[in-house]
Amino acid sequence: MSSSRESWESMFVGESPALRALVDEVRLLRGSDVPVLVVGETGTGKEAVARAIGGGALALPAAGGAAPFVPVNCAAIPEPLLEAELFGVERGAFTGATERRLGRIEEADGGTLFLDEIGELPLSAQAKILRVLQEHRFRRVGGGAERPSAFRVVAATHRNLRAAVREGRFREDLFFRLAVYEVDVPPLRVRTGDIAVLARHFLPSSMQLAPSALAILERHPWPGNIRELQNVLRRAALIAGSMGGVEVAGPHLPAYLVRSVPPPVIATSFRPSRLSEHPKMPSIFPPVIVRASTRPEAMSAPPEPRERTGGSQRPARLADLERQALQQALHRCNGDIARVVRELGVGRSTVYRKIKQYKLERRRSE
Ligand SMILES: Nc1ncnc2c1ncn2[C@@H]1O[C@H](COP(=O)(O)OP(=O)(O)OP(=O)(O)O)[C@@H](O)[C@H]1O
Ligand SMILES: [Mg+2]
């Protein structure tokens, strides 16, 4: 029992209070059979939460073996096919139904029925689902007897179902039947502290993450949440690896990430002329061309909450980051300037000037 607990917990990477609270909720729900509604923005891990809940102790069938976890993507099934998909089809029910086909409700008997994207379900289909949830009985398309199916229901949506209920787009009775317990999966922007550990988790074990790249990742608001982070790291690892590198650095990240910085930082930080007190001195960060379209109001992502990264201190923090990045590169390269130049992709004279400007040691003193 404890080893299975460990295996589901290890799927949830992160140490932030928000993530730990989520894991605690999942643990609680694994020990019950109450219907659960999982809500959260796209890519936050709603399906991961549903699967973890579905793998709980009550789902284990008495006969042993894994309990079924049966996902139904409500957004992907055309309405005319939904009934057949959910309830199954009796042989000869219609032309072409040459074999009996089990429906999702029947397959979920003894396990979990996961109604993903439940907010996309049209009203007529909502009525059918409601009936099954009330009675736990169904009839295959094409007749036959009513059959029982004992399943636990977990639903998920990125929509605000309460608003949909108010607007008459979602049945209130179905909402209350599904949302006996509501789990709100936090977006990545409220748990910035998890980005470093998640990023390393998504990189191949042979690859490092440069502090300058982490700083960029930590400033992005992540509208696509964990999935977006995962995609960014996959791409970065591919590019860094193709150049024979073992470290993901700023230049390996997509340009939109570097640009997705709130206004004071866009205007001051990545512009070489503003980073240091010396206007002509280039930055060790790659220069980024700032266009009008990178203004936050023109970007699809919402601006980051201020408290997350200490927005008011950003310009100072960026100089710090530059100093830190150079200091770490010097240590990694044991003071070998030629290697630092190659690693950071900047000119030799820039490295010397920055060492002097920041009064850095070329080698560790210990
Ligand atoms: N806490 C976590 N730690 C590590 N990986 C995670 C975590 N949560 C989710 N993931 C990964 O993030 C990706 C997105 O998760 P998932 O598909 O569960 O999100 P979702 O909220 O259902 O997304 P969508 O709204 O697009 O359906 C998956 O690859 C999943 O494995
Ligand atoms: Mg999903």
Description of the structure:
By secondary structure, the chain is an alpha/beta fold. It has 2 domains: 2-186, P-loop containing nucleotide triphosphate hydrolases (Rossmann fold), CATH 3.40.50.300; 192-357, Orthogonal Bundle (Helicase, Ruva Protein, domain 3). Helices cover 44% and strands 10% of the residues. The protein has 18 helices and 11 strands. Helix 9 (195-202) crosses helix 11 and helix 16 (314-332) packs across helix 17 (337-344). The longest helix is centred in the C-terminal third of the chain and has 19 residues, at 314-332. The two termini are 48 Å apart. It binds adenosine-5'-triphosphate and magnesium ion. Adenosine-5'-triphosphate is lined by residues 12-14, 40, 42-48, 158, 226-227, 230.
Can you give keywords for this protein?
44% helix; alpha/beta; five-stranded parallel β-sheet; disordered N terminus; binds magnesium ion; 366 residues; 2 domains; elongated; 11 strands; two-stranded antiparallel ribbon; Rossmann fold; binds adenosine-5'-triphosphate; Helicase, Ruva Protein, domain 3
Number of helices: 18
CATH architecture of the largest domain: 3-Layer(aba) Sandwich
CATH topology tier name of the largest domain: Rossmann fold
Q: Order of strands across the widest beta sheet?
A: 2-5-8-1-9
**What's the story with the biggest beta sheet?**
5 strands, parallel
Overall average residue pLDDT: 79
The distinct bound ligands, ions and cofactors come out as:
adenosine-5'-triphosphate, magnesium ion
How far apart, in Å, are the first and last alpha carbons?
Answer: 48 Å
Helix proportion: 40-55%
> What is the name of the CATH class of the largest domain?
Alpha Beta
Count of the separate structural domains:
2
The total strand number stands at: 11
Q: Strand-and-helix sequence, N→C?
A: HHEHEHEEHEHEEEHHEHEHHEHHHHHHH
Which stretches are low in confidence, meaning pLDDT under 50 for 5 or more residues running? 1-5, 262-317
Q: What class would the helix/strand composition place it in?
A: alpha/beta
Shape: elongated
Rg on CA atoms, Å? 26 Å
Strand content: 5-15%
Query: What's the name of the CATH homologous superfamily of the largest domain?
Result: P-loop containing nucleotide triphosphate hydrolases
